[in-house]
């Protein structure tokens, strides 16, 4: 089974995008699609990094733990909110912290917003940053509009059947790219 890190990017109080991350954790586990580990940036409580990991003189155990999780994952399902058309500083902070760990890593993007566009605007800047460091961007998207209405705080969707149908296509694409990358390395 593929090993996926589910990265929940928001650290705000009352964060709604985390509902989507909880949904995906449950969806992947209950359908036995992959081994999935939630990596919640809110729990890490990272400082603002002044340098990439490889140049830090004494990285903390938290930093090394985070880097190892990303490095060991075969793919990343990244869930991010849209803040004023961009992605949160907490996510930019960890993208810039690592380099080799992101390189050639299949990454699927799920976006969320309180408005009608489902975080579509965040894609431009986030896709560019991930492309620039050499990630493999999965061409499927999972935008969630009015996230506070679409999912409850436990990550349960209002319309389970439709959400599961969309999730199936989205997660299948990530798994395809993980398998393709494995085959390229043989």
Span from first to last CA?
17 Å
The CATH top-level class label: Alpha Beta
Instruction: Tell me the strand order in the biggest sheet.
Output: 2-1-3-4-5
Radius of gyration: 16 Å
Which structural class matches the secondary elements?
Answer: alpha/beta
Characterize the biggest β-sheet: 5 strands, parallel
State the low-pLDDT regions, or none. Answer: none
Keywords: Oxidoreductase
Domain NADPH-dependent FMN reductase-like: 3-145
Pfam families: FMN_red (PF03358)
EC number: 1.-.-.-
Summarize this structure as a short list of keywords or feature phrases:
single chain, 186 residues, 5-stranded parallel sheet, 7 helices, alpha/beta, 5 strands, Rossmann fold
Explain what the structure shows.
The chain has 186 residues and is α/β, with parallel strands linked by helices. Helices cover 42% and strands 19% of the residues. The chain has a 5-stranded parallel sheet with strand order 2-1-3-4-5, sandwiched between helices.
Short overview:
By secondary structure, the chain is of the alpha/beta class.
How is the topology of this model organized?
Blueprint: E1 3-8, H1 17-30, E2 35-40, H2 41-44, H3 61-72, E3 75-81, H4 89-97, E4 106-112, H5 122-132, E5 136-144, H6 147-150, H7 160-184
Parallel strand pairs: 1-2, 1-3, 3-4, 4-5
């Amino acid at each position: 089974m593929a090993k996926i890190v589910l990265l929940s990017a928001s650290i705000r109080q009352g964060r709604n995008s985390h509902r989507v991350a909880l949904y995906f954790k449950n969806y992947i586990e209950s359908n036995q699609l992959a081994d999935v580990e939630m990596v919640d940036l809110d729990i890490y409580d990272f400082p603002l990094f002044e340098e990439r990991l490889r140049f830090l003189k004494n990285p903390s155990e938290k930093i090394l733990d985070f880097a190892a999780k990303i490095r060991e994952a075969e793919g990343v399902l990244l869930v991010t909110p849209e803040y004023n058309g961009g992605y949160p500083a907490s996510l930019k902070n960890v993208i810039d912290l690592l380099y080799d760990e992101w390189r050639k890593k299949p990454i699927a993007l799920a976006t969320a917003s309180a408005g009608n566009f489902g975080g579509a605007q965040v894609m431009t800047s986030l896709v560019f940053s991930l492309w620039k460091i050499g990630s493999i961007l999965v061409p499927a998207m999972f935008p969630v509009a009015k996230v506070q209405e679409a999912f409850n705080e436990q990550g349960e969707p209002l319309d389970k059947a439709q959400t599961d149908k969309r999730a199936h296509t989205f997660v299948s694409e990530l798994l395809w790219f993980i398998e393709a990358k494995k085959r390229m390395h043989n």
